[in-house]
Amino acid sequence: MDYSISDGTKPRGTRYWIDKVMKTEKQTEIGPYDHWITPKFSGIARGSRLTLERIENLIIRTSITLQEREVLMELLYAREAYIAFNFEEIGLLRPEVAPPQEIRTILYIAWQTPGYPIPKALKSDAIAMIRERYKKGTIEPAYGPYRNPWFLVAKNKGGYRLINDAQWTNKVTIRDALLPLSADEFSEEFAGCQLTCLLDFISGYN
């Protein structure tokens, strides 16, 4: 929704959040390359996520030196708490990095739209997915006169993806002039470069 009248609000957040957080965090582990990389501050046990099996499956260029590989592994261990191999291991952004988002809307009348029917055979899967997201904090209970319908889509490798139909919300949401680049446009800048890591530009809602 394009809306020209501004209420004067500004995005919240801490500009120099790294400096602020670093003053309160305590280093939990001494590493051999702390003079090169930001040391470990999380309380997660070393190797609890980066298991030997997962390390063996890492695709690391064979031409790097032994020390380069050691630095890479120490970097991964230092950031181990922020590496998720499944949904249960994902985390949430700290409010210093990005505070809870406020969706600005125009004045509107609450809509009433029916939900998509879920087959009985998939109800247990749907309930498990909702409980899992509630436990991780990606969804939360709320009071409201309306809701967005949702449905399940089968994944290529098995399982299901929960899709939230936000068409009705988008109709009353005030459009922000500073839109981010599309994933395709953003990734064009890396064309011809040597690949050093894998990033999922598409899965932004997770």
From TrEMBL:
What InterPro entries is this protein classified in? DNA/RNA_pol_sf, Rev_trsase/Diguanyl_cyclase
The protein's superkingdom reads Eukaryota
**What's the name of the protein?**
Reverse transcriptase domain-containing protein
Please name the source species: Coleophoma cylindrospora
